[in-house]
Amino acid sequence: MPQVVVASFNVHGGVDGWGRRFDVVDACRHIEADVLMLQECWSPDGGESTADHVARKLGYVASELPFARGRIVAPGDPLPDRWGPRLLSQSVHGLRLDRRRNTSTDQRVRRHGARDTVERGTWAIATLSRLPMKAWHTIDLGKLPTDPARRGAIVTDLELEGAAAPMRVVGTHLAHLSQGSPRHIAALRRALNALVPAPCVLAGDMNLWGPPLVLLLPGWSRAVRGRTWPTWTPRPVAQPDHILIRGPVRAENGEVLPISGSDHLPIRSTLVID
C-alpha cells in the first residue's frame, strides 16, 4: 500500500521572539517529510521567500499563499539567551503583522530604536512537496474583523506511486478562536466537502485544541496527539498544530518532533493509503 510522510511546522518567520534568525532549512531537513506544510513563512521585500529557499535547498516544489503584510524588527544591542518577549509584551521586536493598511512605513519605523533593523515583507503559508503535483488551488476564507490576516488554504492533489487516485493535502493557518475562527472552519468544511472525494489530509496551525476541532470538522480524525506550543516554557502546554485525515487513509504513527527555533514544535505522521 502507498505510504507518504506528511508534516506541518509553524516557522514563525524564521526568527525567535527578538527577531533573531534560526536555520529553517536545517530544521526542515531534520523533519524528513515527503510533504511539508509551513505556516508563518516570511517573504522579505525584494528577496527569496522562506518556502522557496527551503524548497530549493531540500528538493521540494513549493506553492505559497500570502496572508498579510508585516515586519521583522531585531534590536542592535546584545540580548539575553532566551526565546524573546513573552505573550502580552509591549515590545516591538520580533515578527509583527500590519493591522492598519493606511499606516506609512516611516511612521512604523519611528517607533523603533535607532539601532534596530527593520525588514518589511509578507507573511504566508506554503505547501512543499517531493511528490508530483497533479493540480493545486487555493481557498479564500476571508478576513475576520479583529484578525490582521486574510486567511485561506492551499489544496494540492499529489500523485502517489501505486495509488488508484491522487491524495489531496490541504494546508492552512487559522485565526484564534477569540477572533471567530469557527466561521473560517465552517467555510473550509463546506469547500472541502464540495470537492470530488479523495484520500485527504488537512494540516497546519489551527490555533485550536484537538477535541473541539474535530467536533467542528465531522468525519476527520487526528493523526498526531502531543503538545507543540510554546517552546519557550519548560514544557509545551497546548496542541494547536494538527494533521487530520479523512477517507481511505490511516496514520501508522504520529509524533511531535523536538526541533527548536520557532515557538512551535513541528509534527509528522506516516500515512498509508488503503
Can you describe what's shown?
It is a single chain. It contains 5 helices and 13 strands. The chain is an alpha+beta fold. The chain has a single domain, classed as Deoxyribonuclease I, Chain A. The protein has a 7-stranded mixed beta sheet with strand order 4-3-5-2-1-13-12. A 6-stranded mixed beta sheet has the order 6-7-8-9-11-10, with helices on one face. Helix 4 links the parallel strand 8 and strand 9. It is globular. The termini are close together.
Question: Can you give me a brief rundown of this structure?
Answer:
The chain is an alpha+beta fold and 274 residues long. The protein has helices at 24-31, 50-58, 105-109, 181-193, 210-216, and strands at 3-10, 35-44, 61-74, 94-97, 117-129, 133-142, 151-158, 167-173, 200-205, 221-222, 241-246, 249-256, 267-273.
Mean pLDDT: 92
Count of all domains:
1
Strand content: 35-45%
Sketch the major β-sheet: 7 strands, mixed
Which secondary-structure class do the elements indicate?
alpha+beta
Shape: globular
Query: What's the multimeric state?
Result: single chain
Helix content: 10-25%
CATH architecture: 4-Layer Sandwich
Specify the CATH class: Alpha Beta
Radius of gyration: 18 Å
The helix tally amounts to 5
> Could you give the order of the helices and strands?
EHEHEEHEEEEHEHEEEE
Q: Can you identify the CATH superfamily?
A: Endonuclease/exonuclease/phosphatase
End-to-end Cα distance, whole Å, is: 6 Å
- Total strands: the figure is 13
